[in-house]
Model the fold of this input.
Amino acid sequence: MVNRLLLILLIFLMGCSSSAPVEHIWELTIKDDAVIGKSELETKQGDSITFEVTGNVNGSIHLHGYDIEIPFDANSTNFKKVQLNATGIFNLALHFEKVDDHDHDHDHDHESNDETEEKIVGRLRVNPN
Done:
């Protein structure tokens, strides 16, 4: 009788531990060089996430570890869906154009003004199932 109860309990716990994948939406609003709103999200392996990125500047969001780049233009919204297979903690970085507003009448040459900066603005935690 005890063995039967243990078997029923084990089957019940196995059924409860695995849940259906969840589809997350992470709205990221970029203002200048910062994210307004939620900067961290916790999920499970097998879930998916749709990034909804809106900004007042041009740039891109980069999800480290997944090597996903989501470009965005000022005053528009870009969407990117990602299947979350890898587990761990992944930084979310904002790449934006470096504003160089000092006087350029120096004795040295500037090869390019196309420099970008990276700023960590969030984290994604993907837990094992």
About this structure: Residues 21-98+114-127 form a domain with the Immunoglobulin-like fold (CATH 2.60.40.420).
